[in-house]
Design brief:
With 247 residues, this protein is an alpha/beta fold. The protein contains 9 helices and 9 strands. It has one domain: Phosphatidylinositol (PI) phosphodiesterase (TIM Barrel, Alpha-Beta Barrel), CATH 3.20.20.190. Helix 6 runs parallel beside helix 7 and helix 8 packs across helix 9. It is globular.
Length: 247
């Protein structure tokens, strides 16, 4: 009997294609489309930290202040166009307080069926679930503001903490998915394990790994069976296919 090849993970462009064009811009979304992605991730912040003001497409407040960001309405109008009709969206709500306004913007453009809303704050996602049960939700883990494992002064304690986190995460993820709180787990690639892959599958959900900017790691995660891989550079998907399985 010939075994079938594993299904290719969904290819997700982080901020569009942030290593090709400035992230969270129309040019970046267009670059992602040109490089054969399946889903575009974009970040949403409120102009005011408490949730008021305009909704802007930016990763954090430093990013927001450094340029003139798109409004969420401008971004969604672009992504609702016919060129993007086959592309799914991952709308990452960075902070709680404006999640229902994001939902309203998606509804107005009839984007709910092809959108997943992700975030690190379960209470905010719960509000969306109550208001629109049909909208897919992704829980982003762990809750961090930056990748602490890249700072050599704190890398060792951060990695030690992640060891314990990795061990506990599969059970937590399976429980949350079985309870219907989320439809997907959006996990930093450092906490993705085969145990997590199994637990998410047992919970009936999908597992997305973020943010993976190395072709060999893309290949490794693909072999593990994740459902989606989020990268700043969608050109790496072709590179990983050419390399074959890592050692």
């Amino acid at each position: 009997m010939i075994e079938s090849s594993p299904r290719r993970p969904r290819r997700v462009g982080h901020k569009g294609a942030a290593h090709i064009e400035p992230g969270n811009t129309l040019a970046s979304f267009d670059a992602a489309l040109a490089h054969d992605i399946d889903m575009i991730e974009l970040d949403v912040l409120s102009e005011q930290p408490a949730g008021g003001g305009r909704l802007l497409v930016a990763h954090d407040y430093e990013d927001l202040r450094s340029r003139s960001p798109l409004t969420l309405e401008q971004a969604l109008d672009h992504l609702a166009g016919p060129r993007f009709s086959a592309i799914e969206l991952d709308v990452d709500v960075k902070l709680p307080g404006y999640e229902l306004r994001v939902l309203d913007a998606l509804r107005e453009r009839e984007l709910v069926p092809r959108t997943l809303v992700s975030g690190m704050f379960p209470a905010a996602l719960a509000q969306i679930r109550a208001a629109e049960p049909a909208l897919r939700l992704g829980w982003s883990v762990p809750r961090v503001r930056r990748d602490y494992t890249t700072d050599m002064l704190i890398a060792i304690p951060a990695l030690a903490m992640l060891t314990g986190y990795r061990a506990a995460l599969p059970r937590r993820a399976r429980t949350a998915l079985c309870e219907g709180r989320f439809d997907a787990i959006m996990a930093h690639w450092r906490v993705v394990t085969r145990a997590l892959v199994r637990a998410v599958a047992e919970g009936g959900g999908e597992l997305y790994a973020w943010t993976v900017d190395d072709a060999r790691m893309i290949e490794r995660l693909s072999d593990m069976g994740v459902d989606g891989i989020i990268t700043n550079d969608p050109r790496l998907f072709s590179s990983s296919s050419d390399q074959g399985s890592p050692d």
